[in-house]
Design brief:
The chain is an all-alpha fold. It is built from ten helices and no strands. One of its GO terms (molecular function) is guanosine-3',5'-bis(diphosphate) 3'-diphosphatase activity.
Length: 197
């Protein structure tokens, strides 16, 4: 990892909470880590997805707290780096602190062996408001459209999983809870009921 991603040990060089410097640092780290990856069913770079998740989080925080923003926002930008890239939890902790690295780790499905949806959602719910808020934002973002390659059954099962996320994590933020409910209804109408495949 290039040196400019690493946090200085000099406290005067630490980013201020929620500063543009912290956001940009996490954005650059995520963009570098996901280089070459594309969004599912799209030619868009994967960094588009993490930017959309961070955008959901920022707007949600304006309405209702998503927890400590200087933890939640980098977590939103970095939420898939442990699951989808070679970045390690130690590298994240060095660059962004233990709280962010821990939140990203709890959002990473590949760290749960054997994988269980129930354990995964319970782990997020018990971890932190920040992690739960990021997962809600992630699912809201993923429900903006359905990959063209997904059959109707896959689209419907994704909606069922979304309802499980809502039930497990909706308590973390009322604004995001309602946003997910509304987004699920839109997805149902456009990409399940309105799909002929």
């Amino acid at each position: 990892m290039p040196d400019f991603y690493r946090v200085s040990r000099n406290p005067t060089h630490m980013p201020k909470p929620c500063s543009q410097q912290l956001y940009n640092k996490a954005w650059l780290f995520a963009s570098h880590a996901h280089v070459g990856q594309k969004m599912t069913g799209s030619d868009l770079p994967y960094a588009t997805h993490v930017a959309m998740v961070a955008n959901e989080l920022i707007f949600a925080h304006r309405e209702e707290s998503v927890g400590v923003l200087e933890v939640a926002l980098p977590t939103a930008l970095l939420h898939d780096v442990l699951e989808d890239t070679p970045v390690t939890q130690d590298e994240l902790a060095e660059a962004f602190g233990v709280e962010v690295a821990s939140a990203v780790a709890c959002l990473s499905k590949n760290l749960i062996v054997p994988f269980s949806e129930a354990l995964y959602f319970a782990g997020i719910a018990s971890h932190s408001k920040e992690a739960a808020s990021v997962k809600l934002c992630d699912r809201i973002t993923n429900l903006q459209s359905a990959p063209a390659t997904w059959k109707k059954a896959k689209r419907a099962s994704y909606l069922v999983e979304s309802a499980q996320i809502l039930a497990a994590l909706g308590h973390a933020n009322g604004y995001l809870r309602q946003r997910l409910i509304d987004t699920m209804a839109r997805y149902q109408a456009l990409y399940v009921d309105g799909f002929e495949g």
